[in-house]
Structure formats: C-alpha cells, structure tokens
C-alpha cells in the first residue's frame, strides 16, 4: 500500500527566511523580553555604553554569519547582509513583543524606546542568525562538511558565552551571590566551571561534541580548548558586567568575584555553543 504525503506550495525565499529568523529571535530573546531588569536598563544604562554594546555586536554577528554559513559564497558582503538582516528582524521582533507587553507605550521618549529595543536586539539577532542556519534547507551532510578551524571554535565559544551571560548579567543576583561567596567558594566555582565545560564537550559524548583519539592525552584538549574557552567566558562576563554598570563602585576583589559568578553560566553557554553549532 502506498501512502501519499500532502504537499504545500513552496514559501517564497524571503518570507521563509524572515519567518525562521523571527522564530529564532523569539526563542532566544523571549526570557529577556519579559524581564524587568532589561526594561529598566533603558533608564539606567549610559547611552555611550549602549553604543559600545551595539558596536561590539555588529562585527560579532558578521563573524557568526561567516562561521556558521554553509554556502560556498562567504564573502564579506554576503555575511554582512545576513548579519544586518538578522539585526533588523531582531529589532522588529523586539519592538512588536515589547509593545504587546505594554513595555513600549505612547508618550515614551524616542531615546527610551530606542534603548529598550537596542538592548533586546543583540540576543535576538543571535537567535535569528542561528535559526536561519540550523533550520535552513541544507542537509546534515552539508552541515557536517563545514570547515572547522581553531579560531572558529573559539569564536563560537565566545558567542555562546555572550548569549547566556547576557541573560544574567543585568540581574542583581550576580552581585548578591558574589557578596555571599568566599575566596574558597570562588576557587571551587572556577574548578566546577572548567570541569563542566570539559565534560560537556569531550567526556560526555553529546551529539556535536569533539572526539579525542586514543593517542591524545586528556590534558591536551584541556589546554587547547577548555582553558582558553573559560578565559573567553570570563572576559565576556567582565565586559557584560561593565556594560550594564554592575562593576560601578566595586573594588577589584568584588569585581573578580562577580566575574567568577557570571563566568559559570557563560562557560556553560560556551560549551553548549560548540555542541549545537
């Protein structure tokens, strides 16, 4: 007996890509779109720090478009167009959702509206780019044949750390936890973060993880990937805490403690990025 499968007219390319990008933007940014701390940043965040955040996000999105691209054409123009397309979709999606939630309302200043949308657009744009890549028309073999480089692997770690760290950096809990911790807590948290990163990618054989040959000692991968990945997660954590004003007025010791706290989820995000991208 034969079965017939229902077919649908092919969706036009632009609408299909836009739909995928909107879906990815929602999945990646919806928790932040519904978080009060993210709304308040439009009031409390310095305009020049927001400009720095956007200035860093644009080349990061261009780089992400290049690294996860599966097409042969990877010139700067194509990747830049993809990145700005994702950023535009992210801004549109953020504006619509914030308006539906009543966060954007008539009577607000243009600066406040622009600030609320711009902050949300960074994680949403990452989601839009990833959705276009992961939900694209290319088959699994094409994805597997994508060239992997050491620099590209570290870059994907940075993207994962930025995304997950972005979710938590604006919250008061990062500073509260750092006040509650001792130096021994910090040392233990660093060790757990590094062990979790290494286990996620190399020991726990998740799909997308990296396999080590029998001739490769465990410490080689630790030195080449895990420790650099944690260092990247820590630097991104420091950048996010600074951008959101969480380091203002803190002494060096408390800044280090706050970075260690935020680096824990950022490190998990870095490891997860290597698994899913």
Report what the structure shows.
With 277 residues, the protein is mainly α. Helices cover 74% and strands 0% of the residues. The chain is built from 11 helices and no strands. α1 packs across α4. The protein starts with 12 loop residues before the first helix and ends with a helix. The N terminus is likely disordered.
Q: What are the main properties of this structure?
A:
mainly alpha; disordered N terminus; about 280 residues
Summarize, please.
The protein has 11 helices and no strands. It has helices at 13-33, 36-44, 47-68, 76-100, 110-134, 140-144, 150-168, 173-180, 183-203, 218-243, 252-276.
| Share of residues in strands | under 5%
Proportion in helices:
over 70%
Mean pLDDT score = 82
Radius of gyration: 20 Å
Query: pLDDT under 50 segments (min length 5)?
Result: 1-10, 138-143
Structural class: mainly alpha
> Main sheet?
none
Q: What's the end-to-end separation, in Å?
A: 40 Å
So what's the overall shape? globular
Count of beta strands: 0
Individual helix count: 11
- Could you state the order of secondary-structure elements as H and E? HHHHHHHHHHH
């Amino acid at each position: 007996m034969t079965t017939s499968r229902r077919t649908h007219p092919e969706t036009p390319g632009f609408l299909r890509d836009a739909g995928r990008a909107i879906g990815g933007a929602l999945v990646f940014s919806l928790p932040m779109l519904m978080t009060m701390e993210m709304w308040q940043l439009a009031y409390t965040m310095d305009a020049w720090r927001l400009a720095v955040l956007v200035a860093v996000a644009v080349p990061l999105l261009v780089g992400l478009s290049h690294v996860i691209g599966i097409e042969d054409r990877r010139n700067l123009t194509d990747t830049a167009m993809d990145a700005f397309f994702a950023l535009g979709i992210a801004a549109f999606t953020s504006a619509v959702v914030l308006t539906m939630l009543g966060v954007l309302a008539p009577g607000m200043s243009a600066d406040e509206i622009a600030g609320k949308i711009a902050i949300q657009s960074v994680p949403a744009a990452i989601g839009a780019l990833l959705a276009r890549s992961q939900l694209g028309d290319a088959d699994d073999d094409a994805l597997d044949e994508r060239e992997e480089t050491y620099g590209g692997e570290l870059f994907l770690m940075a993207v994962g750390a930025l995304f997950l760290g972005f979710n938590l950096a604006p919250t008061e809990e990062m500073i509260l936890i750092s006040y509650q911790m001792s130096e021994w807590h910090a040392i233990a948290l660093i060790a757990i973060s590094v062990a979790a990163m290494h286990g996620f990618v190399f020991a726990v054989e998740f799909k997308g993880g990296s396999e080590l040959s029998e001739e490769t000692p465990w410490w080689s991968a630790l030195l080449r990937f895990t420790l650099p990945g944690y260092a990247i997660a820590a630097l991104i954590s420091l950048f996010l805490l600074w951008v959101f004003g969480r380091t203002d007025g803190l002494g060096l010791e408390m800044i280090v403690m706050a970075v260690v706290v935020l680096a824990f989820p950022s490190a998990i995000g870095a490891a997860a990025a290597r698994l899913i991208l």
